[in-house]
């Protein structure tokens, strides 16, 4: 009974594990990417750009400050200016003059921009930076999707190569058993056994190297997705990458527009600024002539115009903004040229690769048949070990070439997806 329970539990465990492993596909990896810190960082950059735009538009609102203070003077000072009439009335009534050495005050000060040209340009600049951040987020996410596809393709390449090497190792082991019998019977030289054993050892070394590379790829996939794979996931191209605008230049285009507004913002600082300013205070003190408490309210409101007559650093800032604009403009032109050239090259290479893959399939099939003939010839003693091992090597090289071409095909597809901004989640299933 206990044994039966153990068997059932083991079966349940492996069933659940197999179901989980089977449920992992390329779409699951893409979805996991969204939850990783690298994607959250890009989302935070967009949020910061949105806050930057909000900060720029907030400058159009009035600023209101509450003010409180206490001041001491070396001679009695008026709480507020007095008219001659008020002064005369206080003198006739022997009242308290609103003059004091110690004055306490509380109040409110308001400033409101009426016409400030730089604010309009700064807001436009912030809006362009917001758009640039959104495009950069999209670009980085597609780049990370492309990295997942390329890494999975490399993992598939390594896994297939390992399986091919393991299969040939088993084939050589069978030949080794036959040779050992032949050596014992005196029908083969002992050196023949050493040659086959050396070939098996070489395959084992290659397999160990592949395992090291697999671990590196699995680690990279885990870094991007947070998912620990043990083998490559299945993926199939359901749509070809579509041409169109180059996605990597869009963030630069918005940055260039933002820097154009930055120039205009600096230049507009040479124009007049019109703003409203108002303040109201309630002041307290003790009259210098009667020592009685005195209180006065005092306020003002006005419209002011500020005109820069001479501001040398401002002209330098304008020149720096123009230089920065030109630098970004030339960078955009250079990136556009590079992407146009790269996209044409990749499209041509993809066509060539598709043709090469068909030829590689045929080459593997031919090399397999030749190896089968060589195996029979070697077994009946009509082929040397060196010639037989050469057929084994040719067959392995043909399979490795096929797997490498398929991996390179995924790399090109991923590169084109990044260039044209195609979401790989829609292209690969």
Overview of this structure, please?
The protein is of the alpha+beta class and 429 residues long. The two termini are 45 Å apart. The protein has helices at 2-23, 26-34, 37-58, 84-92, 117-184, 190-225, 250-268, 312-379, 385-420, 424-427; strands spanning 63-78, 99-115, 273-286, 293-306. The radius of gyration is 40 Å and the shape is elongated. Helices cover 68% and strands 14% of the residues. It folds into two domains: 25-59 and 120-270 and 311-427, Outer membrane efflux proteins (OEP) (Up-down Bundle); 62-115 and 273-306, no CATH class. Helix 2 (26-34) packs antiparallel against helix 5 (117-184) and helix 5 (117-184) runs antiparallel to helix 7 (250-268). A hairpin with a 6-residue loop joins strand 3 and strand 4 (293-306). The chain has a four-stranded antiparallel β-sheet with strand order 1-2-3-4, with no helix packed on it.
Briefly say what this structure is:
By secondary structure, the protein is α+β, with helices and mostly antiparallel strands. It has helices at residues 2-23, 26-34, 37-58, 84-92, 117-184, 190-225, 250-268, 312-379, 385-420, 424-427; strands spanning 63-78, 99-115, 273-286, 293-306. The protein folds into two domains: 25-59 and 120-270 and 311-427, Outer membrane efflux proteins (OEP); 62-115 and 273-306, no CATH class.
Largest sheet: 4 strands, antiparallel
Total beta strands:
4
Q: Report Rg.
A: 40 Å
Name the strands of the widest sheet in spatial order: 1-2-3-4
What is the C-level CATH assignment of the largest domain? Mainly Alpha
* Integer average pLDDT: 89
Distance between the termini: 45 Å
Provide a count of the helices: 10
Please write the string of helix (H) and strand (E) elements.
HHHEHEHHHEEHHH
Runs with pLDDT <50, length 5+?
A: 1-22
The structure class reads alpha+beta
* Overall outline: elongated
The amount of beta strand, in percent, is 5-15%
Q: What do we call the CATH homologous superfamily of the largest domain? A: Outer membrane efflux proteins (OEP)
Q: Might you state the CATH topology name of the largest domain? A: Outer membrane efflux proteins (OEP)
Annotated CATH architecture of the largest domain: Up-down Bundle
What fraction, in percent, of the residue positions are helical? 55-70%
As for the number of domains, it is: 2
Oligomeric state of this protein: single chain
């Amino acid at each position: 009974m206990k044994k039966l329970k153990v068997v059932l539990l083991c079966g349940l465990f492996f069933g659940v594990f197999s179901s989980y492993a089977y449920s992992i596909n390329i779409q699951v990896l893409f979805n996991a990417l969204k939850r990783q810190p690298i994607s959250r960082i890009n989302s935070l950059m967009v949020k910061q750009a949105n806050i930057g735009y909000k900060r720029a538009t907030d400058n159009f609102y009035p600023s209101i400050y509450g003010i409180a203070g206490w001041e001491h003077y070396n001679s009695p000072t008026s709480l507020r200016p007095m008219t001659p009439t008020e002064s005369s009335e206080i003198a006739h009534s022997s009242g308290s003059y609103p003059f004091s050495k110690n004055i306490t005050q509380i109040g409110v000060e308001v400033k409101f921009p009426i016409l400030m040209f730089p604010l309009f340009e700064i807001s436009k600049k912030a809006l362009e930076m917001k758009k640039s951040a959104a495009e950069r987020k999209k670009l980085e996410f597609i780049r990370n999707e492309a990295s997942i596809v390329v890494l999975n393709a490399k993992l598939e390449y390594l896994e297939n190569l390992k399986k091919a090497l393991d299969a040939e190792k088993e084939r050589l082991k069978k030949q080794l058993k036959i040779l050992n019998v032949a050596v014992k019977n005196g029908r083969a030289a002992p050196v023949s056994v050493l040659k086959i054993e050396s070939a098996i050892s070489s395959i084992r070394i290659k397999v160990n190297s592949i395992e090291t590379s697999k671990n590196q790829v699995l680690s990279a996939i885990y870094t991007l997705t947070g998912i620990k794979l043990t083998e490559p996931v299945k993926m199939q191209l359901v749509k070809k990458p579509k041409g169109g605008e180059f996605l990597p230049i869009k963030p630069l285009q918005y940055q260039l527009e933002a820097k154009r507004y930055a120039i205009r913002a600096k230049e507009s600082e040479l124009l007049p600024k019109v703003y409203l300013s108002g303040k109201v205070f309630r002041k307290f003190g003790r009259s210098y002539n009667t020592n009685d408490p005195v209180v006065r309210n005092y306020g003002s409101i006005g419209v002011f115009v500020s005109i820069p007559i001479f501001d040398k650093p401002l002209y330098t800032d304008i020149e720096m903004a123009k230089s920065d604009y030109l630098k970004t403009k030339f960078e955009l032109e250079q990136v556009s040229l590079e992407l146009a050239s790269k996209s044409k090259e990749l499209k041509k290479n993809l066509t060539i690769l598709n043709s090469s893959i068909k030829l590689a399939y045929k080459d593997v099939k031919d090399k397999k048949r030749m190896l089968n003939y060589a195996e029979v010839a070697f077994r009946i003693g009509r082929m040397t070990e060196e010639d037989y091992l050469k057929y084994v090597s040719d067959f392995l090289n043909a399979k490795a070439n096929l797997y490498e071409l398929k991996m390179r095909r995924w790399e090109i597809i991923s590169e084109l997806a990044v260039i044209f901004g195609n979401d790989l989640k829609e292209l690969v299933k």
